[in-house]
Amino acid sequence: MRLFKRHKDDARRTPAVFVVGMNRSGTTLLRMMLDAHPQLTIPPETHFVPDLIKAARKDDATAEDALAAMKSAREWDDFGFSDEEMLGRLRALPEIKPGPVVRTFYEAYMEQQGKPRWGEKTPTYVQKMKLIQRALPEARFVHVIRDGRDVALSVLDRTVRDLSAADVARRWRKKVTKAREDSPQLEHYTEIRYEDLILDTEPVLRRVSGFIELPWDDAMLAYHERSGERLQEMARALPGDGRAQELSVERRMATHAMTTKPPSADRVARWRTQMSADQRAEFEAVAGDLLAELEYPIGADAVERATARIEAS
Known about the structure:
This protein has a four-stranded parallel sheet, sandwiched between helices. A two-stranded parallel sheet has the order 2-3.
């Protein structure tokens, strides 16, 4: 198996933002904001990048192997590439290696959208950051963290599985903790809070822009004016694939519907009014210590403190 080796040009590559986090944490919102910039495009969730990296690092890897790894994700048809087009690009590479084959996909998408820079937003890559960094040293990871109780509400609102608040708490705790444990081994990693993105949008976006070396553009604040059009790439059902159930086009569109609207404070600390006392106790029993570590309010005066934060914005 071939080891990852950094190319001499890696240090000079344009930074590539990777937006990651627990699902239902606001990663799509940040994607739409950044994608509204005239210099940057971010495709719908890819889901195949870790598999593509693993396929391309084999000594005998071929262009066909790389394409098969891309097509292994049920989201592949969202991007509109024919087999012939992608194979032609892959076969033009001097050698099949992880970095070049992954960039080949993003560069094709970038050209399709007519923009000079690309990024990525697939929440589950929050657990694959070290793997991605080895293949793409230009990757800059933005970890979006949201109050886990609001994550739980959003997940439970939409899931077709039999989940409890405690189930979501375990997943939220595992993903946030793993990312923070991995972060010292990453060359470019930062965290933002969903709540700050909603309540203090421009300062947070300016910080992210600086982190990825993207010049500021006011178009990012008007993201909602074009997000409906951008979502049309995903306007098709996702087939069941053994790991996930079939997802109808209606459910896919509904999942991201809030990104077609400006930021709204009523999306912050929903748990105050929409989470039952039992659900809140269940969640906090599993992940209350992490909520406290992240300085989310817990305890008897939690509702009052969360409300004060919103009113002060």
